[in-house]
Amino acid sequence: MRVDSSARGRPQPMTDKDRLAETEAAKKPDADEEAEAERVDENAEAEPAKDAEVNDTHDEAEASETPALDASVNATPESEPQEVSKVVRLERLTRESFPGVEELELFDMPDGYIAAVRVGDKVDEEARLALGKQLVDLFAGQGVLVEPLLYRADAWKQLGELAGESWYTLLSAEGRARKLHELYRTKRPYPRDFRRLMLGSARSYLTFIELILREAPFPLHLLAALTAEVMRDALELLFASRGQHFDGSAETLATFEAEFVASGAFSVDQLALYFQLRGLARQTRLFHDVGAEPPDGRFDWEPLAERVRGFFGDFERYAHARFSTAAERRRRRVLRIAIPSAIALILLVVVTWTYSTLKPLEPVTATVGAKLRRRQGGIMGTYFKGARFQKKVRERLDPMINIHTTGTPEPKAGADDFSVRWKGYLRFLKDDRHAVCLESDDGGRLWLGDELIVDDWGKHKLRKKCKMVRVKRGWYPLKIEYYDMKGLAVARLKVGLEERRAKVVRSVDLCCRPEAKRKKPGKLRQGKAAVLRPTVMKKTPVKKAPVKKAPVKKAPVKKAPAAKKAPAKG
Questions:
Q1: Chain centroid, CA 519 distance in Å
Q2: Is the model's pTM score more than 0.70?
Q3: Burial of 477 by CB count in 10 Å (0-12 exposed, 13-18 middle, 19+ buried)?
Q4: Which of 196, 324, 478, 527 is close enough to 328 for a disulfide, judged by CB 3.0 to 4.6 Å?
Q5: Which of 298, 324, 350 is the last residue of a domain?
């Protein structure tokens, strides 16, 4: 909504000289003006809600120096006084200049006016911004400043429900916190809501201070000024909690010592910290304006910031102590014990779960494992009629747990409404984490040792459920229960290092085949003692086969020739 105020005869803005003359004239009213103001007050008793806020009256000096108002505004009925208050005139001028304004509350402040305006819901955001600018221009044309507050109908109604019909008075800086405290006192539950207000404010203030200290590269005078302003808001709430008003005067020091320091909630230097921050802002602002660094170098802000944090810590403790009922204090003491206990319990559960996850399952002993290896090659399965193991029909050796049929895996159990229980051992070949999976249609569950690894019991379509377990190399007790109601029957045991790579377990990794049956000894008849006699074994003569001696050929012995006798000598 854009209003052409010139079409309504809006006067031109005043010059600085005219505004200065108007201000001086307003500060020095003469006796006639005071009498005139009294007459206006008497005639305006019919409108007490508006005329109660009137502090100034229209004077002839101001009228002679400022441009005349719109002719439509000045033209009043004969029953109304010729001279009306400035607030009334400004309200009337605003309503006539902006027909889109549905409701207006105007009240003066030390440095101008606040205009709380309710606009129609059809006014969009762009039109609201334009309206705010036009309000500022309109009031500036009358030589006054205004802060426009534009509300939609739903927001206006919500504030009225929460804070009462005169909620707009809380916008005033004069005694705002004290009015706010009185408002909370009339509401229920009190003091809980006011405590929440103070605690929420303290946390917001601390968050803001930490932000400007660490994240934003503000100059020192802005840091000090912003921190002082935040601390002032907290002090206003603090004083309002005791029915006092904080105006930053010297009397507030005595009030602070009497109300807060004497009770031990705060220390004496914490209020002085506020004035110290204001002084620091002025001190450093001058160096910033002339473009110079302080002679003592960069100011160490951290010790001062730590004192501010300490103040807000005491502020939170004061809010708890001052605005908590006896029941709330008891509950807080219980929570102070219960919360650490609950945290310790949660940590214990987490540590236990982590340890159980990381700790590998223990296989059977090496001796038992050696015996199982002699019987590996399948697992015993017991088949029942009925989905709840009602009637046992057969026990058999299954090479693998790998059922996938629309018929029946065991004719005696039937094609539907049967159940199977496998009990035996499963072997893992190496130390590692393995995905143990059970694929079933309908229900199935799997135990490894005493731990339930997969629980997928219940009627459902074909699906696979897995769990990662850490194991050592060796054999582990295995039990699987499965049932099928009707239709497709599926039961598969799969193992792998990853779930997506899990395969059906081989026969050699399952145990155990049934042991060979031994003949039972015969039963003894009653009344006769069994006499065990030693069995005499007859010796069977062993015929020795004749041994043929191979002829031994003797090698011819060559005789040495006889020695020739020597002839005898003569």
A1: 71
A2: no
A3: middle
A4: 324
A5: 324
